[in-house]
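Hi U.,

Before I forget, here's the chain from the pilot set. I'm dumping it here mostly so it's searchable later in email.
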Amino acid sequence: MKTDLVDRIKNFNADRNQSVLPIKYNIMAQNPFCFLRGTCHLFYQDLLKNYPFNFSPTSWICGDLHIENFGSYKGENRLLYFDMNDFDESLLAPLLFEIARLVVSVEVKCTQIKYTTLQKKEIIKQLLQQYRNELINNKSQVIEQETAKGLIKKLIDKVAERKTNTLLITRTNNKLKNVKLLISDKLLPIDADKKKQLITEFTPWFEANHNKGFKVIDAGFRIAGTGSIGVQRYLCLLQNEKNPKQKKLIDIKRAAPSCISNYTNLMQPVWQNEADRVVKTQQMMQHVSPAFLSAFNFDNDVYIVKQLQPTSDKIIIQKNARQDGYMQNYIEDLAMVTASAQLRSSGRLQSATADNLKEFALNENWIKPLTEWCLHYAEVVQQNYNEYYKALKAGYFKI
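Structure:
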């Protein structure tokens, strides 16, 4: 048993909410891809222990880019977009940090859904070629409802067809008076005093920063994602005091330091706090940010606020994805979104310029070492998963 692997995972999660950590540990045990999602810190520990790549331009990165860290959401302009959707680990770093994590995730996921070695090789080659083309083209692009195709179009059309009150129907008791959030395996009750404190502080803050006339009427502890499970996270139900039919669901998530910062001495801008880092990086990298994206101080800590983004509003690659003819377009779109985010944020707060990114992309020397390391590390993920699964079953992760 690799006790150092167990210790690395347990130490990283030591400051999380221990009562919900078993949920995260069980999700990580489902397959190697879920394990990869839940152990971003392991990826960067290993990458930076003996950094395998030559120079690449410094860019803004979301930090935890994987094949399922993209999704559809309603922007602050109320239009629908498809983009990266998690910036908790964001920071300024060599852009190959980001691409390596994405490529490893594609390799691991494609192995899980039974792609052949040749198919995986072609998919990764296609991903990197499209990424290079976008940087060389040197113009950021955006995927919205009118421009989406394939799997992404199916997703955005589904989100667009969803009625405004669908989320409220599925997540509340759907009453006009005394409306409450439904407690489930994804939403747990919180202490009465903590709920009162959250309601008392969030209502005037939301009114001052976003919409007047809305009051928090209920709140719960939200379980979402994989890597972030255990982080303090709340779902608030807001109601318009003058028009009770108008309600909003708001996600409030504690902002922790990027796990990458623990393993590198890369110089970073000075932020007001960790939520400021996440919000401003997201605003730089996305074409349009989600509604209500902002930072909120609560209980001597900082939180990221945004409109609820359901986990169903992302594409989960299943076994039949390789038969439906959409995988090629999807991989190309992910490459385009990634390159566009880097171009959009280029030249800002010490990051490389768009011209620097283009110059890097014109040189193909980085492709072979990147591909070889990512294929190797995908095997490491499989080995670590096997060890983790044995340790979990042996009771090493009992809380």
